[in-house]
Automatic annotation (TrEMBL):
This is Fucose permease. One of its GO terms (molecular function) is transmembrane transporter activity. It is found in: Cell membrane. It comes from Salana multivorans. Keywords: Membrane, Transmembrane, Transmembrane helix.
Amino acid sequence: MIVLIVAQVVGTVGVGVAPSIGVLMAGEVTQNEAWAGLARTASTLGAALLGLPLGNLAARFGRRAALTTGWWIAAAGSAVLVVAAQRSQAVPMFVGLLLIGAGSAVSLQSRFAATDLAEPRHKARSLALIVWVGTVGSVLGPNLGVPGQVVGDRVGLNVYAGAFLIAAVFLALAGLVVVAWLRPDPLLVLRGEAATAQVPVSQAHAPDGARRPGRIRVVLAELRVNPGARLALVAILTAQVVMVSIMTMTPVHMVHQGGSIAVVGLTISLHVLGMYALSPVVGHLVDRPGARAAVLVGVAVLLVSLVIGAVRAHDTGWIVVSLVLLGVGWSFVNVAGSALFAAVVSDRTRASSQGGVDALANLCGATAAFAAGPLLALAGFSMLSLCAIAVLVPLTVLALRSASSFVSGPGRREGSGS
């Protein structure tokens, strides 16, 4: 847990640069709203494309191999972005943003790694702790513009290139922390404990990535018969779509309203603070009353946020409030869904299915962010918020219909997947 915490803090500093500095750089380099919209989704798309391979890597070789690889891929992407920002080159910018998405993928995987050896009644608390410590890095990341300017002045780089240079160093350090000190590997220890408990060889030792078609069929079959897994999946996807679509377009909307890079950075930082600061509280709520209660609280907070965004779209102060509440609502829904999924998924598909869920969430987020650009341009921020409200409806219906017997808290191993 200590190693995961340190790596998460250090790595998320580098990852946090993409939602603000990366978004603004995309608009300046491309000078085209359509291309800029694609660039804004590139890091999320990269997380989606790399999430499943990194999950499979964890399934075959353990968490240490997967997390190290992901952090170092992101560091390489950030280094590419230094060149792209300095030379205003669009293609390297797309490549760099795709690669830096690996940092988001392993940041998400780290929260599942925290549950590998956690006591059943404390799985949500352990997961929430890793999410919470990401606050430090994720709040600092969007504000790398100021130190980026200082570094850039000293080495001859512009503000964007300087910010991504700092990010590359932090991402590389995160990988170094994991490869040097994540010993023993928690997932491999979990498998060893399963073998000691005389779990069948097919579940205890067979690598998740050994037979890809069979693994996918097993995961899909489990979703069909496991109501807890279905609720968890819908919760994770809904939270990601709503949060990414609004958060990605907010810097653009604020700049159009005359906001500066400093104001944008502060707003995103407060939003990220909202995402992570209450994670321990959410974890406790999930471990006690249950995931269903936390999901419904999160939906209510998201609704308030989106109503504010729709009604007070041109008021900077209210937009900041809306973004903070957006982060808090995402925290409730995402932590509850992730903890529930970690509790109910079968051990034999654990790592790869977790990677698949994160990949799908990022893919949905990237799609939503890309669609949000034209919607913002055509209809404005208020309409974007109203569309996000509509996305909440299926999750709300599913959570209200769910029987408390299978969402009564991950610590009690609810669901047929247990």
